[in-house]
Amino acid sequence: MHAPDLDRHPALPHRRVGGLTLPAISLGLWQNFGHATAFEDQRRLVLHAVDRGIFHLDLANNYGPPPGAAEESVGRLLAGDLRAHRDELVVTTKAGYRGWPGPYGEFGSRKSLRASLDASLGRLRTDHVDVYYSHRFDPSTPLEETLGALADAVRTGKARAAGISSYSAARTAQALAVAEQIGLRLAVHQPSYSLLNRWIERPGPDGRTLLEVCDQAGMAVVAFSPLGQGMLSRRYLDGVPGDSRVARGGPLRPEWLTPEALTHVRALDELARAHGRTLPRLALAWVLRDPRVTSVLVGARTLDQLDENLAALDDPPLTPEELAAVEAHAVDVGINLWGSRSSDL
Question: Considering its fold, how many domains does the chain have in total?
């Protein structure tokens, strides 16, 4: 049985929005937590994260592969090493992408979201999650139904709070209006955001960006993919490593590694090194420069990668001169994998 570090909670800065407190850096279990990774390696990484002060573990019903595998792994930990510490943790999950075959295995119907949450709780071996998300906007289901399912989860105690992920600024505003009508508080939004993917800064039809909509509503923002699916990790500066996400057929697509994109990445790497940083630390510091971002999700594969990510919190804040130099290379390069399936709808 693992005994967590007694000094873990003061180790990382916390950010609080409304009733939700999160560490500045959280652990996302989207990748590296499927059956292809030995459970002992997963265990070592999660427990190391907890020892370092990370108390937010982010999941979804489709994380693995196969779907559900990541929740099963965390469930083993919650039933074992972390059993005495469940109330110290923020454990979140989502539904909306495909979790099982058939028409109710994805999207945002009440039937799908309720069934998915019950299955997630079984895999996690817990009676509740701290946030239950609608993983993506579903144009085929009324928002009243999707958000009503989230409200059911909160009302029955199966979720402590509700959130949405990858909804555009306009859809988020609509969701907030519907939520108010049915007596639901949307506590958090989880969008992708990085130096190479800045869609949440673009104004919607009413002139407000997603960041502005969330800020005005008092919603926390948890940014995922802050390293651009690994493009900002330095792994692709000189080609494609054999054990990389691209080589393994992961979500980072080879066609995204264009000469133009890599020119910007190499320039950002040079800027980082010129100021005593690494590229990943620069990327994380840049996302966290905005106080409206409550936390960033990192998906480390090794303890060293996780420690390097956490080191971004020890670096001095980005200076105005650094921010100005970075701005020329902080450009969208077409890597918003989730746009056509949610935020563009």
Answer: 1
Whichever domain contains 29, its CATH number is: 3.20.20.100
310-344: b (≥16 Cβ within 10 Å) or e: bebbebeebeeebeebbeebbeebebbbbbebbbe
pLDDT, tens digit (0-9, with 9 covering 90-100), for 78-98: 999 999 999 999 999 999 999
Distance of CA 141 to the CA centre of its chain: 24
Work out the pLDDT band at 152, boundaries 50, 70, 90: very high
Other C-beta atoms closer than 10 Å to the C-beta of 91 total 23
Phi and psi angles of residue 15, each rounded to the nearest 5 degrees, phi first? -130, 135
Classify residue 22: in a domain, yes or no: yes
Q: How far apart are CA 280 and CA 4, in angstroms?
A: 27
DSSP category for residue 328: T
How far is the C-alpha of 247 from the C-alpha of 230, rounded, in Å? 12
Give the tokens for residue 249. 């057929």
Alpha carbon distance 71, 38 (integer Å): 14
* pLDDT, position 31: 87
DSSP, collapsed to helix, strand or coil, labels residue 276 as coil
Q: Which domain holds residue 152?
A: 9-230+278-316+335-343
